[in-house]
Amino acid sequence: MKKIxxxxxxxxxxxxxLSACEVNRLPETAISDDTFWRSESDxxxxxxxxxxxxxxxxxxxxxxxxxxGLSSNGISDGSRLAPSTDGSYNTPYQLIRAANNIIEKAxxxxxxxxxxxxxxxxxxxxxxxxxxxxxxxxYGSVPLILKTLTDDSPELTAAAAPREQIVEQMYQDLDFAAxxxxxxxxxxxxxxxxxxxxxxxxxxxxxxxxxxxxxxxHNSGDPVKHLTAAxxxxxxxxxxxxxxxxxxxxxxxxxxxxxRQNRENIMVRQYGVxxxxxxxxxxxxxxxxxxxxxxxxxxxxxxxxxxxxxPITKSPLYKTPTATIEIFANRDARMIATFMKRGDAxxxxxxxxxxxxxxxxKTGYMFRxxxxxxxxxxxxxxxxxxxxxxxxxxxxxxxxxxxLDNAISDADLDLTLNxxxxxxGVAKLTNAFVTTNGxxxxxxxxxxxxxxxxxxxxxxWDLIRWKTAEVELPKPILGIYFFKSEFPPATVNLTPDNFxxxxxxxxxxxxxxxxxxxxxxxxxxxxxxxxKQNPGW
Length: 537
Hints:
mainly alpha; Serine Threonine Protein Phosphatase 5, Tetratricopeptide repeat; 3 domains; two-stranded antiparallel sheet; 21 helices; 6 strands; 40% helix; globular
């Protein structure tokens, strides 16, 4: 049975970051910092707070070429300015402070065994690394804070630490976490949802792949070091035998894919078991997919290969569609799990999907992952949000192995990508297949990542680390072929070859001189003169 990890809200000073004088003003019935940190229960309760920073459902794919919302956004159209404040900067530091607080104070719980203390310090160090990765992805070099601060701490006005130093600290934190945390098997049903040692390794693999490929393609840093770390961490997860792929790709993102019985999920944000037994709910299906806040693009659609493993530009199986349903014929099965097609269950008021409402789904496509009719009725979905999946680990190993050696063996392809392709009903990828069909292995590895992780928030960051954002993001956003006999009358812009034109290329800009890093918030620079703005901002 699935067990909910309860996220406890705190009224005591330890995680709110209150000063001593503020602590003195707490009601007598409140928990004080001095009376806390005594037992294993206290440590667990404190660590629970860190899980509230688990990422929820979002529309981050709209920053990329995989999706677009009801209107353009400043990231993909190049119009943003340096903000005064930015939650993407401040929120990770709140998490880091909470983690630092636990790391410092957990040893006070002298009634708990050392192994227990280490376990919760390990959870805190995992989340500290999680917070810093979010910052480094966006801003590059940022201040490295490894302790709780007071009003007069010199770190408040310290310069940003070198990127490499921050990444090395993340590695140290994740290595410690991997050595001290229980395995998923040891966590069992009782502690399902807590961070495991394989989660620490899988996240280290993600960090290292990002840094290794970024170093390689941006000509900055040590790609061999990071790619080697990515290979080793991913392989450790594979060799642990703690995880495996879930049998059905669509059900992986439904209630059928929840709980310990799904060994593919390594780390999830939990929402609950039922309406009455829940942590929280989300309206991702209704609010983001049905209402058009995130719509898949033609570019994403075209990236799904045919069942023979060849792209639509090369496969003899591909026939020019004469109706929307024919777009899905003989395609990678992940496409019909990710895109709505005619005949899919949609919602109570319109039980069967016909075609997208172009007033909302401006590309003429609609996402299907996480779509659930019962959730549409209640407007309160409890489907968990996968944060780390075993499929990502397999993709990471394959890509890091290839980028490290500029080659990958068929054995490693069978260990990784071909397992994903088998689940999707797609022919195997081999070196001979690539050569015979005039493909390139790097592009096929990247294609596999794109379709496997579609709608999960990876694409923008992949373009950033590969240094291809300057090529892909300025392209026009196109939608489905406009079949006049299927779509109701609508005012849409069309290309000369009759595809829906959602956003023309002249409205999409990416400046490689500055856009590979995000601008630091202006208020942070004002508060800390040692903090320098990123180039070009």
